[in-house]
Every structure is written in C-alpha cells, then in structure tokens.
Design goal:
The complex is a heterodimer of chains A (115) and B (113). Chain A is an all-beta fold and 115 residues long. Helix content of chain A is 0%, strand content 50%. Chain A contains no helices and 11 strands. With 113 residues, chain B is mainly β. Chain B has strands spanning 3-6, 11-14, 19-21, 23-26, 32-38, 44-50, 56-59, 62-65, 75-77, 86-93, 101-103, 107-112. In chain B, the strands form 3 sheets. In chain B, strands 2, 5, 6, 10, 11 and 12 form a 6-stranded mixed beta sheet that branches. The N and C termini of chain B lie far apart (41 Å). The chains are: A mainly beta (115), B mainly beta (113). The interface between A and B is medium-sized, with 27 and 23 residues.
Chain lengths: 115, 113
C-alpha cells in the first residue's frame, strides 16, 4: 500500500531533550516536506527536500533540522525542543519534476507536547 | 505573495443540509487549487482538485469550481452526512513554485443527525 508513515504518533517530552520524528514514504517520491499545524494558522511548512541531499527552509524553520540521506526517509530533528514547538506535525511527499497539479500525500501526524 | 483565505468555522449543519465553505486565493500565474480533508485523528487526504480556470473538481458528492474572475474555489455539497464532519483545507500550488502547497487556515465542519 502506498503510504507515508511517521513515528512516533504521540510524544511528550521536556524542554531541551533532543528528539527525532521519523518519516518514510514507499512511493519513490522526490519531494518531501514537513509541516506543523496550529489552531487558527493552518499548516505551515518547516523544511522541504527536492531530492536526496537537497534540503531547504520553509516558512518556519527556526528550531528544526532535517536530513535526506535516502530517498524514502526525511527525519525531523528538534535539537533543543521548547514549549512553543508543541504542535501537530505532518510529513508529506509528492512526485517532483514540475507537475504542479500533483497532490501531496500526507502521513498520519505526530502530536508533540514539550513541557 | 501567494495566499489562501478560508471562512472561519466551525460550520454547524444538520444532516442533509447544503454545505458551502468559501475559499479565495491570491496568486501570480495560474495556480492549481486543492481541497484537502482531515478526519479526526488522521492526516490530510486530497478531496478534489482543479488545475485551470473553469475546471470543476468533484469527489464523494463534493464539488468546487475554479473561478479565475473571482479568484475563488468554494467547496459545496448538496446533502451532508454525519460522516462528513472533519476539517477542510483549501490549498494552492503556484505554477512557478511547483512543489510547495500553501494552505488556508482550515474550516471545521460539524454535522449533527
């Protein structure tokens, strides 16, 4: 089944304790992206990757890191989480190459709480 | 810059009522337009899309028409069901930045029996 998976689905942590949220897709998509969803703000892009070893900042990158060593995986790293990073996080992927009508496929989400 | 504006929710309806969720956009060029739906506890799923002016996207009884003259992509359904209760997001992709999705803030729909 074609899908985007994220782990963990739920995470409660404390300020300053490094964490990684994993994202994996099995559709051979070039483009992957991380979003955070906050009430009244919709989804905002954190980072994206056009392909392996190519990553770039989205609209709200502060406090986050990403890497893209393999095509299928795109982990999100919070090196020193803070309470303002409490949010619902989504990973997404799409075929790239200029087809602007392609839909993005979303993972199930990771609800992160930073105390 | 590019942006999407949606009506604020929640929208509360009785079963079988008519639904409209308004969406307007600002974009350069000729964007593609999307409606995504998020059911409780789940990720976003594509509901429908339209890639050029006057296109009508449709799925599961929902429809939306790409209106370039009014820069709108309103979502409609003739008769909603309790199972349609979800959050609906309007989004666009620019024809220039072909991979980035820009979302509206989302509209929560609650349908009661």
């Amino acid at each position: 089944e074609a899908q985007v998976t994220q782990n963990p689905r739920y995470l409660i942590t404390v300020t300053g304790k490094k964490l990684t949220v994993t994202c994996s897709q099995n559709m051979n998509h070039e483009y992957m992206s991380w979003y955070r969803q906050d009430p009244g703000l919709g989804l905002r892009q954190i980072y994206y990757s056009m392909n392996v070893e190519v990553t770039d900042k989205g609209d709200v990158p502060e406090g986050y890191k990403v890497s893209r060593k393999e095509k299928r995986n795109f982990p999100l790293i919070l090196e020193s989480p803070s309470p303002n990073q409490t949010s619902l996080y989504f990973c997404a992927s799409t075929p790239s190459g200029g087809a602007y009508y392609n839909e993005q496929f979303f993972g199930p989400g990771t609800r992160l709480t930073v105390l | 810059g590019n942006s999407v504006t949606q009506m604020e929710g929640p929208v509360t309806l009785s079963e079988e009522a008519f639904l409209t969720i308004n969406c307007t956009y600002t974009a350069t060029g000729y964007p593609s337009l999307f409606w995504y739906v998020q059911y409780p506890g789940e990720g976003l799923q594509l509901l429908l899309k339209a890639t050029k002016a006057d296109d009508k996207g449709s799925n599961k009884g929902f429809e939306a028409t790409y209106r370039k003259e009014t820069t709108s992509f309103h979502l409609e359904k003739g008769s909603v069901q309790v199972s349609d209760s979800a959050v609906y997001f309007c989004a666009l992709k620019s024809s220039y930045n072909t991979d980035k999705l820009i979302f509206g803030t989302g509209t929560r729909l609650q349908v009661f029996p």
